Amino acid sequence: MESFLPEADREYLAEKGYANSEITDGSQRGVIFSKWSLPAGKYSHGEADLLILIPNGYRDTALDMFYLSPSVSLLPDQKTPKAADQTIAFNGRTWQRWSRHLPAQKWRPGIDGLHTFLQAVQSALTKATP
Fold it and tell me: Burial of 44 by CB count in 10 Å (0-12 exposed, 13-18 middle, 19+ buried)?
């Protein structure tokens, strides 16, 4: 399989040791991170697979939203995190959509990439509320 990620992203992921797969499903391309650790004691699962869809024109075009499988809920009440109540299908699986958007002025075309977006994902997971 030919990689669709820029070399800088591939090098970053290898350096960090992130288990990932680049998947094309129809017209969509995504990176799946296996067994992504979730903040301890916060969710119904300690880990989930993380999907980031890669838009056409990426790295000049911002990454937007992320997805978890299986879906998670917040402890102790099993409530769905805010703006994470929709699902999508990708690669034969159902993914919980986390609607998180970086303001356009926060994305630096050609500079930002998975390394900055993964920080935003981790922040969203840490700060999630019902």
Answer: middle
